[in-house]
Each structure stands twice: as C-alpha cells, then as structure tokens.
Write a structure and sequence with these properties.
Helices cover about 55% and strands about 15% of the residues. By secondary structure, it is of the alpha/beta class. The chain has a four-stranded parallel β-sheet, sandwiched between helices. The longest helix has 16 residues, at about 115-129.
Length: about 130
C-alpha cells in the first residue's frame, strides 16, 4: 500500500527540506509554478498529477487549512488504497520571518510577512481543533 505523506506548515518551517530527504516522489505546487505562470493552471496540474499517482508520495505544500488537506484526499488516485499521514511542521512566527530573510539573501525568494502571518494563524487554528 503506497503512502501519501501530506506536509503541513507555514513557509520556511522545513517542509521542503524534509521532502527532499524522505525518499518519496514529491508533488509540490511551488515546482509546478516554476513551469506554469497562471495559478489556476498550477492547481489543475497538481490535482491531475495527484489523481495518477500510485507510488509513495510526499505532498510539499503549506496545507494550512483543512479544506486543502481534504481536497488532496479527494483527488488521490481512487484505484489505489492509500496509507495517508499528515506531518506537521511548527515554528514560531519570529523564526519563520528570520528564515524568510535568510532564504531571500541566499536565493532571492521572499514571501511577504503578512502572508506568512496569515498562514501562521490558519495553521494554528487548524491544529488547535
């Protein structure tokens, strides 16, 4: 039975670093965005690819809302019985801001602080329940 590992955490919480080391196939909207520029097309391709997967897979998105996690589960290949696990990545807001600045200095990739703060709130609300 293949495993679907759904990562959940705000930007810079360590999800992508973990995903690269886990040994599973990785499906990430960030990687699809590099190829496609229109956001709707990114998500269409993400769910289409998810629907065809039949191997161990690591979903490397923020997944800070229950609706996102449920949509992943709904779009998994129906011909496969999945072992689904959610792995949570928690960091403080200050650590996330610091890592965001360091990442920007190294790569030029920057996520606005207000977006990180919004995802932090969503993430905490999701896992308090």
């Amino acid at each position: 039975m293949p495993k679907c590992l759904i990562l959940s955490g705000i930007p810079t919480s360590g999800k992508s670093t973990f995903a690269k080391k886990c040994g599973f196939s990785i499906l990430s909207c960030d990687e699809i965005r590099k190829e496609l520029k229109e956001e709707k097309l990114v998500w269409d391709k993400f769910y289409r690819e998810l629907n065809y997967m039949d191997v161990n897979i690591c979903i490397d998105n923020t997944n800070c809302k229950l609706s996102y996690i449920n949509k992943i589960k709904e779009n998994l290949n129906k011909n496969v019985k999945w072992d689904i696990e959610i792995k949570k990545f928690s960091v403080t807001l200050h650590v996330a801001y610091y890592r965001n600045i360091i990442r920007y200095l190294k790569t030029g990739k920057f996520i606005p602080f207000k977006i990180i703060k919004s995802m932090y709130k969503n993430y905490n609300n999701l896992w308090k329940k």
